[in-house]
Amino acid sequence: MARRTVDELLEEARSGLHRLQPAAALAAMEAGALLVDTRCEDLREADGVVPGSVHVPLSVLYWRLDPSSGHDDPALSDLDRQVILLCAHGYSSSLAAATLRALGFEQATDVIGGFEAWRDANLPFDGGSS
Questions:
Q1: Domain assignment present for 23
Q2: How many structural domains are present in the chain?
Q3: Which residues pair with 85 in a beta bridge?
Q4: Which of 48, 92, 108, 123 could potentially form a cystine with 128 if both were Cys, beta carbons 3.0 to 4.6 Å apart?
């Protein structure tokens, strides 16, 4: 197999996603979508959190959401629900959303620009020390 770069993987992942601007992600949440914040706890404490989002670290994301993993959270593992991932800048969330799509979450996507873009769009968030 030929080596691919992370930029190539990211481009491939994003080609299968309908990525959302922060305001569209907020509207989707208000319509029932699940916003999953994959950032580490340190970043969440420093920068703040989106009200109504659920924190699932990237390291356990697939096991918490995949209903067949044996380690899923039933509140999160509805394959029919739209899942929107939020990371710091919108890179790791794209790769993770593509993986969730492969696991059967057909509506999985992410927020363009991540939490940074959410904050810059003056959308609601709580806390943050920076």
A1: yes
A2: 1
A3: 36, 110
A4: 48
Which position has the token pair 């067949």? 68
Q: What is the CATH number of the domain that holds 36?
A: 3.40.250.10
Express each pLDDT in 50-103 by its tens digit.
Answer: 999 999 999 999 999 999 999 999 999 999 999 999 999 999 999 999 999 999
Q: From CA 80, how far away is CA 16, in angstroms rounded? A: 17
Q: Which residues are catalytic?
A: 87
Q: Are 84 and 38 in contact (CB under 8 A)?
A: no
CA 43, CA 67: separation in Å to the nearest integer? 28
**Matching residue, tokens 């993993």:** 69
pTM above 0.90, yes or no: yes
- The answer, yes or no, to whether residue 21 has pLDDT greater than 90, is yes
Return the beta strands (E) in the chain as ranges: 34-37, 54-55, 83-86, 109-110
